[in-house]
Task: structure prediction
Amino acid sequence: MLHVLTDTLIDSVKLFPFLLLTYIAMEYLEHRTSSKTRELVKKSGRFGPAIGGVLGAFPQCGFSAAASNLYAGRVITLGTLIAIYLSTSDEMIPVFISEKVSISVILSIVGIKIVIGMLAGFAIDLIMRKSKKVIDINEKIGGICEHEHCHCENGILKSALKHTLTIMMYIVLISFALNILIFFIGQENLGRIIQNQPVLGSFIAGIVGLIPNCAASVVIAQLYLQGLMSAGAMLAGLLSAAGVGFLVLFKVNYDMKENVKIVAIVYVISVSVGIVVDLIGFVF
Result:
């Protein structure tokens, strides 16, 4: 047990500089582009799913939360919101970068999420357009960083350090739990149990992704990197992982039935993609 704990801590500490540098770069982009990004999404019109799908893939402080606020005020369409949720990468990119995953693999995963988000968004808007109602715009953008608890106002370095320490904590806890599980069961046996059930794996990963916390994408990324999750299950979890977007949606959009439907739509799309990917045997 001591050996497992020691290995977990050593491996996690090695990730610290990579995570910190990644978050510093992300925070810099966030501070420079966040307001412009929201304005671009607001003015996107019928091209919202395409623009939202691309912009959602860039890790930004509270972007999925911003999308939830914009939708609650009916500033963006449902299709645009779904596209952003599906393409949101949350903590996947920094975790993969810190683990030195090939850039081509990262870009492939992000690209698939963007395409799925766009296609789903346009399809949903096409369906909704037939029964479109005139709604007064009541924009509710505000307190986005408070919802995200990212304290963007603290400056780039402090915010990046806070993000890094938070994710490091998750990585240590999750890695320790996985290492203990692997220690008692065996990596080959555990991998065989999960990977031989692609359909069930996608359903479970999709549920994990719905957790409105950055820990969800960290768990999914770590399981995949440990070889304990198939490519399809990993995609299902990452597609449904919209960060704190769902949490904010339920807080600012008062139609609870609609909120549940939105979550259900994201989940069904995510799981469906995961199952198809595993059935065709696609690997990264």
